[in-house]
Amino acid sequence: MDLVLNPHDAKAVEAADFLKRRVGGKVVALTMGPDMKLIPLMKPLYNAEVMGVDEEYVLSDRKMAGSDTLATSYAVSLGVKKTLERHISPIDELAETISKSGYSDAVKAKAAAFYQANLLPNRVYSELPAIKGSVVQRFLGGDLTANQAVIELARVKESLSHFIVVSGIKTTDGETGSVGTQVAEGVSELLGKLIPHATYVEDFDVDDTASTVVSERRIGRMVQKLEMTLPALLTISTEYRSRETSAASQRDTRSNNYRGKVLQAQKWTADDLGADPKRLGLAGSPTIVGTGIDVGKPPVQKFLNKSLVFAKPVPQFDFEGKKYGPFDKTQLAVDLPPALEARLKEDGSVTIFGYDMLAGELFG
Amino acid sequence: MTDEAKDIWVYLQQDREGLTKDSLEVLAAGRKVASKMNQKVVGILLGEGVEALAKQAVQYGADSILYVDSPAFKTYFNLRYIEAIFTMVEERRPYAFLFAANELGKDLAARIAYRAVTGLATDNVQLEVENYSNPALGNFENLLIQIRPDFGTRLARIYTPRHRPQMATVRPGNFTPLEPDPKRKGKLEKFKFVDVEYPAKVQEVVELPPPELDLTGADVVISLGLGILKDASGHARDPKEAYRLAEQLREAIEKRYHLKAVIGASRALIYAEVKELEGLISKANQVGQTGTTVSPKIYFALGISGALQHRVGMMRSGKIVAVNTDPNAPIFKIAHFPIIGDLYEEVPKLIARVGGRENSGVGLSHAS
Questions:
Q1: What residues of B are in contact with residue A194 (Cβ under 8 Å)?
Q2: pTM greater than the 0.90 cutoff
Q3: What domains can you pick out in chain B, each with its CATH number?
Q4: What is the interface pTM, i.e. ipTM, of the complex?
Q5: Which of A195, A324, B193, B273 is the most buried (most CB within 10 A)?
Q6: B336 and A301: CB-CB below 8 Å?
Q7: Which residues of A touch B352 (CB under 8 A)?
Q8: Which of B106, B125, B270, B292 should we substitute to test contact with A (largest number of A Cβ atoms within 10 Å)?
Q9: Got the DSSP string for B137-171?
């Protein structure tokens, strides 16, 4: 079977795109499966409407094969954690360099390298002429003391923890719809704090500082508005239509953005993730898929204007030394010797199944 | 490890009218498997002022009820509900735990399963009980067999042999609620739950009125498919005409037999966005895996070829009547009463039989 991108995930990409336009930041696409097949499939996401994703990661390892939703969610949660750490550690390193070496070329070199690797937001370091007053710029220009710079970096680090995970509502193969919310649980476990979630989100917005998200969703007959403190996870309904964002907001949030896109998807193995192998793949999957069942075994069928059925109850009788019956009215007359069938037809005991009998069977 | 865990838990949902039909179905499912395993059914109920509902659940098949009754639970809030239910699971260790496979059930079940480190089989259309042997894992007695649509063409059996509770969501429309028994008695136990802080809160809840079209509650569903666009000779027909026929059949059935009948549609017909049917049918009418699963007493499939995703959504109907010009249409594999013919000719005959004569002499017209 050929792999395709899950069509439900298009809504998640749309939602992530909205978030980037609304508050800036970076859109990271994360998936799990065979990297050789998935990396080419994910390529178009870089150009998805409107701005596209910025980076792509594929969790790929033989140890992950055969994962059910629990093992999948564990691996994906590790991927989310690694993504977060990957962005936090450059800030830590930079803060450490500033503390240790003060105003030195080492600070600029380090910041530039991280920036080129797409790991520092513009407000920490930028080579864009339009961005003025990044932390490193102000520090090297003498506007910030080392201490002040470190405090600002801590603030940036704190804001990085205000991430949002968006997912489609379900895949189109397994269709469990469980992985989204289970990732909220998995990330909660790994980060040691409760991550709220909202499923079937039809509309949402975040505040300007990206600290809370308000989502609207339908649960049965309830329409519920849920306010969540970030980080949070949303599964995006097929009914979702992203809100408009102004050009001004896109300009204002640019300082939260990163240099650009990393156009080569990266593969992360179980070891890269620091995964517990007992929680991956078949070993980490509580559920086992057994033998299949064919859908809808043919019931007793009566074809209109075709099937021969008894027109009235017929008690048991002998015919050429064999016993037949008893037969109920409308019972199928099958496997009868031709001579017997002819006799039953003649005396009106059997007849072709028609509309009157059908009405009787349905409503009688 | 099999098993100190005991009891079959059923999560009970409520709305303004009381316990939801979905919940009563899951209770029936729980009753079925519990009887086979010689286990008890425990209803799990969260809310404010729920004691009357707890008693109602006992009448519908629960052996006992474990409930949280607190103003904090008046409004549904997923994190709080998950916390409370997980606390119950941790403390009591049920053998199996069933939820309805609707938005609310899914909002809860997956996170609870992850936190409890167990499996979750979603969207089951059947539940059975069997002994299970696996050369690598050993023998398991009275295991829950969770049967759900497989991707592709079949149903799959899902087992959760080593983990407890065995968790499953049950797709609405596949089990029939039990008849309430006013004499049934059961223990109602209030669960003491110590609430915690959550990084979220419910701002607003609006409860919508019950849907005008109740596919799952109907006795009879009359569904239309893409076949209505052409007649047997391949000539285009006005689909409105087919809709009118279905409507006439529906009215005739309601009038004559006092059954609740509704119009359904296949996914193909909904997705075709037929202009003539605008305002007459919508996604709310869609029967099937991605629409609504139904199991009415009588199901009419008119001009529906019967793709698997449609069949799994209606195959548990009591009696299936299918009208199609193509004798090889897959719908005929599961129809009790196949009618190979043109629905534009056949449905009027059906309407005449159903609506017409009071004493139609059912079954006697060919005799004597």
A1: 79, 198-199
A2: no
A3: 8-190 (3.40.50.620), 220-355 (3.40.50.1220)
A4: 0.85
A5: A195
A6: yes
A7: 355
A8: B106
A9: TEEEEEEEEEEEEPSSSEEEEEE--SSSSEEEEE-
